[in-house]
Write a structure and sequence with these properties.
By secondary structure, this protein is mainly alpha-helical. It has one domain (16-216, 225-459): MFS general substrate transporter like domains (Growth Hormone, Chain: A, Up-down Bundle). It contains 19 helices and 2 strands. The chain has a two-stranded antiparallel ribbon. Helix 3 (26-32) runs antiparallel to helix 9 (189-213).
């Protein structure tokens, strides 16, 4: 049968091809060239290049995330209220958002020669706008997975593709950005914007690949609750979803740990190891090994289940980071242990993407109303708070330990602080994250299969979904 004639049959079956599942990960690959770029290098750009105090930088991240707290539900409501068009419900919003996000990413790495107060205003304004545009890019991308397939193995493969894409972007940004920046002239402010332009262009191209190759094929009932997109509806969808709460708590810890690692690695290489040129090489090994390991996620999920391998990953990573904190710093032992620790972060973060799609379906089954973007927005908000937490931990530590920008030799307190947040903080975050996942996230794979079967049959927890059109708003019970 030709590929063309096979497409309707595949659409009816709800099963994407292996090619589609693999190319779906290009969305996170593109996302990393903008999201992870900012997380890894904006702190250094603001502190070392523009002279903004490290404490103020931590405040900038915090204020912009508070702003995001109000904007994310609005973005989610608008996306959920859209009708399904010829190109789908989520794909067009994702692609348009990616183009604008690239432009705003470049903007965040610009800074005119202004008085310090106006530099701070510029940084806050630019990063706040970036957060809004990010919501219109990543929320639809994430929601899209839930309407590509309901099959557990498909979702595990797409989760693996996403994490490989994310780690691939972190890998390239981690080892390529500094050399690209050096090529343009690291000492010039405009060079940071030029290097960001190169990264953002790759990001947009990657999103385009995802857009062209993905299809929204799962048939869902959108006739119920279509018009209900208020803050009250957002709160109902989020706060009656216990699996989502467990996922949010775990993500808050694990993403902040990953961001702290990426943010502080450049400081650790420059000051603790005495050679900033080691940062790209360490990232090359650490993220490269993690990306290869994440490819095993579908097989691991099939054998042991998502929740179990996520918890094991957390505990292995915690042990490696704790040992790395305790033992004296030696280049090769540090590289081995930080790599194992990063693998421990990468595995649960990779499985997370499958968890998100499951919590979207759980929300529909539990409340009787389909609101993909509202669930995704709540999850993504936890990632944004994690960014802020990472900045508070990283930049806050630099401020508290007396870090002096561009000073060749830092104090012993600062060096100890850099190593502490790079190793001990992820160890603690991984342990607590595993506890949250074990006790709060209560959606097993077997329970999800039952939920998926009910949704395919047009049922929710308390009856037939379409019956609500006549009966009125469903009463969700905890």
């Amino acid at each position: 049968m030709s590929p063309k004639s096979d497409e309707p049959a595949r659409a009816r079956s709800g099963r994407p091809s292996m090619r589609e599942k693999a190319l779906y990960g290009f969305g996170d690959f593109g996302n990393g060239f903008m999201f992870d770029l900012g997380q890894s290098y904006l702190t250094k750009f603001w502190i070392d290049v523009n002279g903004i105090g490290s404490g103020v930088v931590a405040l900038i991240f915090s204020l912009t995330k508070i702003f995001d707290a109000f904007m994310d539900p609005l973005a989610a409501s608008w996306i959920d209220s859209r009708k399904v068009g010829r190109r789908g419900k989520f794909r067009p919003v994702m692609m348009g958002g990616a183009v604008v996000l690239a432009l705003v990413t470049i903007f965040t790495f610009t800074m005119p020669n202004l008085p310090m107060a106006w530099k701070i205003v510029w940084a806050i304004g630019g990063y706040a706008i970036w957060g809004v545009v990010y919501a219109f890019t990543n929320n639809p991308y994430q929601s899209m997975a839930s309407v590509m397939s309901r099959n557990i193995e498909d979702r595990a493969t797409m989760a693996s593709s996403r994490q490989v894409g994310s780690l691939g972007a972190q890998w390239i940004v981690g080892f390529a950005f500094i050399p690209v920046l050096t090529m343009f002239g690291m000492e010039k402010r405009i060079s940071w914007a030029m290097a960001a332009l190169v990264m953002a262009a790759v990001g947009v191209l990657s999103f385009l690949i995802c857009y062209k190759s993905s299809r929204e094929r799962v048939r869902v009932n959108r006739s119920v609750g279509y018009e209900r997109n208020s803050v009250k509806d957002y709160a109902k969808v989020v706060f009656t979803n216990r699996p989502l709460l467990g996922l949010v708590l775990m993500t808050l810890l694990l993403i902040s740990a990953m961001n702290v690692n990426n943010m502080m690695m450049v400081f650790f290489a420059q000051y603790n190891l005495g050679n900033i040129g080691l940062q790209p090489r360490i990232n090359l090994i650490m993220m490269g090994v993690s990306a290869l390991t994440v490819l095993l996620i579908p097989k691991l999920v099939k054998r042991w289940g998502k929740k179990r391998i996520a918890i094991v990953g957390c505990l292995v990573g915690a042990c490696a980071n704790l040992v790395n904190f305790i033992v004296p710093t030696h280049l090769w032992s540090f590289i081995v242990l930080v790599t194992i620790g990063y693998v421990g972060l990468a595995i649960p973060n990779g499985v997370t993407w499958a968890f998100v799609s499951d919590t979207i379906d759980y929300s529909e089954w539990h409340t009787g109303v389909r609101k993909e973007t509202m669930v995704s927005a709540a999850f993504n908000f936890s990632r944004k708070i994690a960014q802020s937490l990472a900045a508070l931990v990283g930049a806050g530590m630099l401020s508290l330990t007396g870090y002096v920008a561009n000073q060749k030799i830092q104090s012993p307190e600062t060096l100890a602080g850099i190593k502490g947040v790079l190793t001990l903080y992820p160890a603690i975050a991984l342990v607590v994250g595993a506890v949250m996942l074990f006790f709060v996230y209560n959606l097993t794979d077997d329970k999800y299969k039952k939920i998926a079967g009910d949704l395919e049959a047009g049922r929710w927890e308390h009856g037939v979904i379409e019956d609500q059109i006549e009966e009125g708003e469903p009463d969700s019970k905890n």
